[in-house]
Write a structure and sequence with these properties.
This is Glutamine-dependent NAD(+) synthetase. The protein is an alpha/beta fold and 607 residues long. The chain folds into 2 domains: 283 residues, Nitrilase/N-carbamoyl-D-aminoacid amidohydrolase (4-Layer Sandwich); 209 residues, 3-Layer(aba) Sandwich (Rossmann fold), CATH 3.40.50.620. The protein has 20 helices and 24 strands. Strands 1, 2, 3, 4, 5, 8, 9, 18 and 19 form a 9-stranded mixed beta sheet that branches. The chain has a 6-stranded mixed beta sheet with strand order 10-11-12-13-16-17. Strand 6 and strand 7 form a beta hairpin. Helix 7 crosses helix 8 and helix 10 crosses helix 11. The longest helix is centred in the C-terminal third of the chain and has 23 residues. The radius of gyration is 27 Å and the shape is elongated. 46% of the residues are buried.
């Protein structure tokens, strides 16, 4: 049998557009001689939709599209993911919904559950993830609950679909990531299958750096254990939950019966590939496209997310505060690649604290990229505001409006973003960016309503050390980012104490603090300050080894355990205090790691 893998872009919340894409791929599959076309999980509605699932009219639109897809199956079988709905309500008092797989053939849906008089023309997902950004149990029931209502084990009702020539074992996304679940769909299916059959997993799985290796390990093992080939079909596109923006990279893969990945579709692009399946052997005649790895892959993912989401937001131009520092420089490159350098407006907003080094770097960056560039000094505006406030006073309180020190530093940051950049963006018909990185977001080294403002935060899931790594990758072939932006200390340049020409900069010690903050924030089993204290109690060598910090570098910064503890307590207090208040008001973060701030990392203000 010839099988066409349709790695389609799934548009969240737009079943009609998704149907058009499905129709196009079905026609391609027929033209290629395929007998079966396979689409991703939730190919009709989209995946990250939040409480849109509570809107009954939207669900009904999806159900109508399901029927329209069924009508397309006269000439070719179609396996796709969508929402299924029961007549009765679920435990939440709303419609009982499933994240389900459908198999259409000759204009009809095949029965995928047939046990004890219960017949269903769809297969519910067995395992519903409820961690990180996932919260499927909030909206959907699953095969486990269906089995419970039937008073039978899942193994009784989960069976492969008999297509005559072979049996097809269908699973949906999380069903393959079953290591922490008691019920294991692949093990259930393989007991009912044999050599010559085929496994398939339809997914809508978000991108994280290095996930391809984990995916190959997991799904390769399923194929190897069953001694049956496996097709993994994932979506492309971007989707968001309001606080995080995710890329779906595709990377759909074909695994042979030994668990080896013999072919993967290109990442971050719609693509259809024909798979030959005969006598239990899978083959693909197409040549696999080379794929980027490491920070180059992250670079590709960020540009992809920026391009797709600005288009979805209807934003064609962007304004960036170009300080001459590394974050704004990397952001400018990413946005230029995503929407074109002519649509990226760079604005340098100096005060007396900004060095010629950074001002020249900002200008050089604009020239290297070919972006529109403007110098808009903010010193006069800041001075006028301070003088105006100094002349004002409260009734019934004698506090003086002296805007000095940290207050003046924050004023500069707010003028740059909330006043200058927002106004310039309005005039040129653009959005403006937040250039913050994950290190600064972790401990609140940013100004609320200042540099935390913007339409989205492209670098918010990259530690500062990764931003530098990305800058070096950008400059691999030619100097796009001025070397000065890479060489100078990271600095906000908001006071004389942050003079980069004198080697002064931010109080965050890179890369040590990145590793410490990641230890608190990114580990699967969450760590607190007590956990880092315990590591430190075993000595500097053990502590640094566990965090992944160079011991000799660490010793140049800290002499005693108490020095380390004082520093640790200071940052922990910020991490759980003022930084938390700032984080929950951040714009959406482009997510590329195993844990991103936002809806992935949910926080409550407890103190």
């Amino acid at each position: 049998m010839k099988i066409y893998i349709a790695q389609m872009e799934v548009i969240p919340g737009n079943p009609e557009k998704n149907f058009s894409a499905i129709q196009k791929f079905v026609e391609e599959g027929i033209a290629a001689g395929a007998k079966l076309v396979i689409f991703p999980e939730m190919a009709v509605p989209g995946y990250l939709l939040s409480d849109l699932w509570e809107e009954n009219s939207f669900v009904e639109r999806c159900l109508r599209i399901n029927e329209s897809i069924c009508e397309l199956s006269e000439k070719v079988d179609i396996l796709f993911g969508s929402v299924a709905k029961e007549k009765e309500n679920g435990e939440n008092g709303r419609a009982l919904l499933y994240n389900a797989a459908f198999y259409a053939s000759h204009g009809n849906f095949k029965t995928l559950i047939d046990f004890g008089g219960v017949k269903k023309k769809f297969l519910p997902k067995t395992l519903l993830p409820s961690y990180r950004e996932f919260e499927e149990p909030r909206y959907f029931s699953d095969l486990r609950k269906l089995a419970q209502t039937m008073n039978v084990p899942v193994s009784e009702i989960l069976s492969p679909l008999d297509l005559g020539e072979f049996k097809l074992g269908i699973t949906i996304c999380e069903d393959g990531w079953d290591s922490l679940y008691k019920i294991k769909p692949f093990e259930i299916l393989q007991k009912k299958m044999q050599a010559g059959d085929l496994l398939v997993n339809i997914s809508c799985s978000p991108y994280t750096q290095g996930k391809d290796r984990a995916r190959d390990r997991v799904f390769g093992a399923h194929a190897k254990n069953a001694k049956i080939p496996l097709l993994y079909v994932n979506a492309v596109g971007t989707q968001n939950n309001g606080k995080n923006i995710y890329a779906f990279e595709g990377d759909s893969s074909v695994y042979d019966a030994k668990g080896k990945s013999i072919f993967s579709l290109p990442i971050f692009e719609e693509h259809g590939s024909l798979v030959n399946f005969e006598n239990g052997i899978v083959s693909v005649s197409e040549t696999e496209a080379p794929r980027k790895t490491g920070i180059a892959e992250v670079h590709q993912a960020l540009v992809y997310m920026i391009r797709k989401n600005l288009a979805r937001f209807g934003i064609r131009k962007i304004v960036i505060g170009a300080s001459g520092g590394i974050d704004s420089a990397v952001s400018a490159v990413l946005y230029s690649e995503a929407i074109g350098h002519e649509n990226v407006f760079l604005v340098n907003m100096p005060t007396r604290f900004n060095s010629n080094t950074t001002k020249n770097a900002a200008k050089d960056l604009a020239e290297n990229l070919g972006c529109p560039y403007m110098v808009a000094p903010i010193e006069t505006v800041a001075k006028t505001l301070c003088e105006s406030l100094a002349a004002d006073s409260f009734v019934r309180n004698n506090v003086k409006m002296d805007v000095v020190g940290i207050h003046y530093e924050n004023l500069q940051a707010r003028l740059r973003s909330a006043a200058f950049l927002a106004t310039i963006a309005s005039v040129v018909g653009a959005g403006f960016t937040c250039n913050g990185n994950k290190s600064e977001v972790s401990v609140g080294y940013c100004t609320l309503y200042g540099d935390t403002s913007g339409v989205m935060c492209a670098l918010g899931d990259l530690w500062k050390t990764q931003v530098y790594e990305l800058a070096r990758e950008i400059n691999a072939e030619r100097e796009v980012i001025p070397q000065a932006s890479i060489d100078i200390p990271a600095s906000a340049e908001l006071s004389d104490a942050q003079n980069v020409d004198e080697g002064k900069g931010d109080p965050i010690i890179y890369p040590y603090h990145d590793k410490l903050f990641a230890f608190w924030m990114e580990r699967w089993q969450r760590n607190g300050i007590a956990d880092s204290e315990e590591l430190l109690s075993k000595g500097f060598e053990f502590y640094c080894a566990q965090l992944g910090v160079d011991l000799e570098f660490f010793k140049t910064k800290f002499r005693t355990n108490e020095d380390v503890m004082d520093d640790m307590r200071r940052w922990w207090h910020r991490y759980k205090g003022i930084a938390l208040a700032k984080r929950i008001q951040m714009p959406p973060i482009l997510s590329v790691s195993r844990r991103a701030f936002g809806f992935d990392y949910r926080e409550s203000q407890l103190g």
